[in-house]
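ARCHIVE CARD
Drawer: 12
Card no.: 0347
Subject: one protein chain, sequence and derived structure
Cross-reference: see card 0346
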Amino acid sequence: MQDFDPVAHFGLFLNRNFLDAETCANLLVEVNSSPTTQAPVYIEGTEGTIHENIRKTTSLHPSDETISEMWNRVFQQKQLLEDHFGESLADCERPQFLRYKEGDFFVRHQDGNTKQLDFDHLRVRRISIVVFLNNYFSGGALKFSDSTTSFDLPGETGLLVAFRADVFHEVAPVTSGERFTMITWFR
């Protein structure tokens, strides 16, 4: 009998140490002093983009130079992602930075789904990227689920996780500390 492999089951691409500890530490210093906004969530048929019963987290807005540097680093993964997912990818969206404080979460959702016709940016997303910038928090696991199983991926500083944008996932509530991530999507 073979052991169940949740990474393979959900088709995850993992690149441990995508960012080294020093780079992550420097990013944390910058994003902690950056302007912030409430993170949006797009729900077809609703007004506004802030729905704290669905997603409660903070968007952090570092310098354009930092965003460009991180975009370049992620884009360098394009060929590896194409090989892993067997898809030709065009480009990736501008990276976003998020802080989940104690009690923050994001319910089960998909990042891309052709049924969400109101939002063009969701229709074209093919591969989701999450990069953990720290691991000194409790809770806050990146949870994957389908009709047969679920899998909790804990944070690991510098870890890049990629998955198909139509895979259901969520961020479990943070129970202590703060969870920092960078996210983007390949189209």
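Annotation on reverse: The first strand starts at residue 13 and ends at 15. The mean pLDDT is 90.
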